[in-house]
Amino acid sequence: MAKNNILSTMKYVSRMKKEFMLSEIKDYIEEEMSTQDIYNAVSPFLFDLKLNATPLDDDFQMTRGLSREKMELTDEEKEKMLSFFGSAVVPGQLQKIIENYITQKTTKEWDDPAVLERIRKAIVSQKNAYWKSGKSRIISYEKGYSILAYLAYQFPVYFVQFEHILYSMAVEGMLKKRMKVLDIGTGPGTVPLAIADFYRRLDDAEVAIHSVELYDENIEAYDAIVSEYAKKASGVIMEDPIKANLVDLKPENIPDNIDLMIFSNVLNEVRGLTIEQKAELVKRLSSRLSDDGNIVLVEPADRVNSTEFRKLTLALKRQGLGIFSPCSFIWCQGCKPDECWSFEQKDDIKPTRLMEKLADCEEAFRYLNTDIKYSYAIMRKDNLSRINYKVPLKSKFARLADMDKHVGKRINVVCSLMSGDLGDIKYAVYKICDGTSRKQVYALLPSHHVVPENELLKKESYGSVIELYNVLVKYNKDKDAYNLLLSKQSIVEKVE
């Protein structure tokens, strides 16, 4: 009862005053409470009350927070983001914090030869486990050196790739000025660190980041690294991780009214659950999502994980969640994901100092990890889609399901761009999809046939819907796939 009274009082006072000291609340409540007791009672609710608390001596200065309206990046903010992506690397300050953590954890300098060799062995062990299948595939980050190996090898790529996802969401108007975020399976805090770094380039935004993690070693790393780096990010509130197993996680144990729920490179590592059971798990937790919130699912781009991931997104669609992107069901029918190997691709990152030290050996290739390829999906409860286009009934586009009828012919198709360039100097190659085909279909553009009328194929982003005119259908027997060959007479247009 006392808590409800305090919260009502907080709402009342915040409407009357733009700023006030928390101690002033004592004058409005009957209970005898210290300022710290009042703060402890209201702190879990401050974000939803649109209030920020700043410690000041023995008190807290209370100020009104930003509204939860759509975030719109300024030209200056976009420039900062694109400058970062143009030569992406884990910021030097964050690298230093991670290096210091390794020194603290091992009681030796981070670049001590013995430390580096143990990290190398842990990286090789993790990579070997990753490529196993079935019950023998056990990927664990429970022990100290396995986490140090993760920070050295996987972390830099996962860190930058999530900033790419955040930027695309911001540009598309999918983020808010004031957001509540939940990262499930946070590990040592990769996603929270990416969010904090992203927000360092914003002038007027606020985010409260909650997370869930099972292993004590990861939580220890999170406390040492995330808290230190987030201190320099204005408007970022880092909450202590919730210690829980993803499989057993109950909705009532996580915050409510979440704007962004994240499962980054975690669901593929959950053992003992079918795709339908994983979908049920995500759907159950989505009950804590705000009505206009987003669920971001990210998985590795290798064929097995990427294909399984597409099955998961369709299972979630059957559970009632809508796919915002990258899939577009332009023929008004569900796709068949058994052979859907699709992924986003970005420019390589620069290796960290730690990665370069690890690669200073005879088999450098084992310890360098700089390419960014990932499969992702954004799910929503309101069925909003990035692209609402549906193929008109009387249009003269061929379905990709009917490619066997058009081999050797020139046709027009409308499709989604579902990969980066998979080709080489001679041929640009892109996976395309319209939701109808059971076989893989690729658009091929020879370098000597690039003209202004078709070069859009090389410029459009992952998930965009495009129209291809006058393309030649060929069947690739070795790959059991269809290639749509563009020439100088082919035209590519974007569907808005």
Relative strand content: 15-25%
Top-tier CATH class of the largest domain: Alpha Beta
* Low-confidence blocks of residues: none
* Overall residue-averaged pLDDT value: 91
Q: How many discrete structural domains?
A: 3
Distance separating the two termini: 53 Å
Compute the number of strand runs.
18
What's the name of the CATH homologous superfamily of the largest domain? Answer: Vaccinia Virus protein VP39
How many helix segments?
A: 13
What topology does this entry show?
Blueprint: H1 2-16, E1 19-21, H2 35-42, E2 51-56, E3 59-64, H3 75-86, H4 92-106, H5 113-130, H6 144-153, H7 155-171, E4 178-184, H8 190-199, E5 206-213, H9 216-230, E6 236-238, E7 242-243, E8 258-264, H10 275-285, E9 289-300, H11 303-318, E10 322-325, E11 344-346, H12 353-358, E12 372-380, E13 410-417, E14 427-433, E15 441-446, H13 456-459, E16 465-476, E17 481-485, E18 491-494
Parallel strand pairs: 4-5, 4-8, 5-6, 5-7, 8-9, 15-17
Antiparallel strand pairs: 1-3, 2-3, 9-12, 10-12, 11-12, 13-14, 13-16, 14-15, 16-17, 16-18
Helix pairs in contact: 4-9, 5-6, 7-8, 10-11
